[in-house]
Amino acid sequence: MASSMISSLLVAVFSVLVLxxxxxxxxxxxxxxxxxxxxxxxxxxxxxxxxxxxxxxxxAREARMAASLLRLHFHDCFxxxxxxxxxxxxxxxxxxxxxxNPNNNSIRGLELIDEIKVAxxxxxxxxxxxxxxxxxxxxxxxxxxxxxxWDVPLGRRDSLTANLQASNNDIPAPNNTLPTIIAKFRNQxxxxxxxxxxxxxxxxxxxxxxxxxxRLYNQSxxxxxxxxxxxxxxxxxRHDCPRSGxxxxxxxxxxxxxxxxxxxxxxxxxxxxxxLNSDQVLLTQSGETAALVKAYAADVDLFFKHFAESMVxxxxxxxxxxxxxxxxxxxxxxNNHY
Length: 338
Ligand code: HEM
Ligand SMILES: *[C@@H]1O[C@H](CO)[C@@H](O)[C@H](O)[C@H]1NC(C)=O
Ligand SMILES: *[C@@H]1O[C@H](CO)[C@@H](O)[C@H](O)[C@H]1NC(C)=O
Ligand SMILES: *[C@@H]1O[C@H](CO)[C@@H](O)[C@H](O)[C@H]1NC(C)=O
Ligand SMILES: *[C@@H]1O[C@H](CO)[C@@H](O)[C@H](O)[C@H]1NC(C)=O
Prior knowledge:
This protein is mainly alpha-helical. Helix content is 47%, strand content 2%. The protein contains 13 helices and two strands; from the N terminus they run ααααααααβαβαααα. It has helices at residues 2-24, 47-61, 64-77, 110-123, 130-144, 164-170, 178-186, 192-199, 231-240, 264-270, 277-284, 287-298, 300-315, and strands spanning 206-208, 250-252. Strands 1-2 form a two-stranded antiparallel ribbon. The structure holds protoporphyrin IX containing FE and 2-acetamido-2-deoxy-beta-D-glucopyranose (4 copies). The site of one 2-acetamido-2-deoxy-beta-D-glucopyranose (NAG) has 3 residues, from loops.
């Protein structure tokens, strides 16, 4: 009697949690299961070690790989959720997201994801999803180059589809206005703190000239270059980012410590040395985001705490769980490809 009352109560509480989770898009997956850090503890006990060791070797070889892997998780999660859709190549049924404006000639690290997948298929065939590999590799990358550690909720499944149009439209562009960037985060269930904290990912990695050239030169209809950019820094950037040509020349997103995950990205912004327009506008276009930029510049621990929390939130965007999707054998194609 008492026990049946208790179980009814538990069912009621559980239903409320599931409904609340569904309403907010997280932390419950679309299949009704929450992501949990222990997901592979029995089915593939060494999964996390395998990912970490391959990422560690790659980052030791080339520090930028940490940045490239972190960005892959972001570009995956913002397009129909964290479902590995980014990794699918063109095929008869797939129009690859790899050709989108944010991704083409820009995303890196895809071969390393393949390498991790091969190692995991060897250890535990058909078990660890490509979407979870991206989430783990992003966390390991951040930790390896000096950033915070967080437990990665797991149990994502891989999509059977990709969405090139969403990749073009839903991933923010470097010349988007701040309201547009905020709206694109809100579409994913992410707020202002997430916008500023996650932009702090630009404490590592490189950008092509083409992603910020607009800021360096006046153009027809636009009287002057971007005066929120420090003049001396702009002059330095113009050397290798000419008006035309040099599109793929590379520049650190954090000129102070390009391979270290720290809060100097925010200090740069305070002195007009954010590289992308989308970086600098966090200070110049809103008091609320400016306050966060200042807080993170002043307190690296606060930045690390918020960054880790926001990464978990981002990783919870519309995951496929339970019986949804599949665990791909090869991250580049769905299992029944033809
Ligand atoms: C807030 C909106 C954002 C915009 C407009 C933006 C835009 C960009 C652009 C234009 C680049 C340079 C790409 C190139 O020229 O090849 C870049 C690089 C990068 N982005 Fe973002 N990004 C944003 C948010 C994020 C977030 C949320 C993350 C991760 C949590 C992230 C991680 C990175 C990393 C690590 C790089 C360097 C990649 C490398 O060196 O391979 N970005 N981003
Ligand atoms: C995929 O195929 C489309 C259509 O043929 C093509 O336009 C696009 O460039 C291809 N994408 C990639 C990443 O190869
Ligand atoms: C990607 O960039 C390459 C090289 O610049 C270009 O040839 C190709 O058309 C681009 N692909 C798409 C889908 O835009
Ligand atoms: C942003 O950059 C893209 C690509 O270079 C360009 O086509 C677009 O016109 C730019 N938008 C604004 C508002 O400057
Ligand atoms: C654009 O910059 C060039 C070179 O600095 C300068 O000569 C020209 O007057 C500028 N045009 C406008 C409209 O500001």
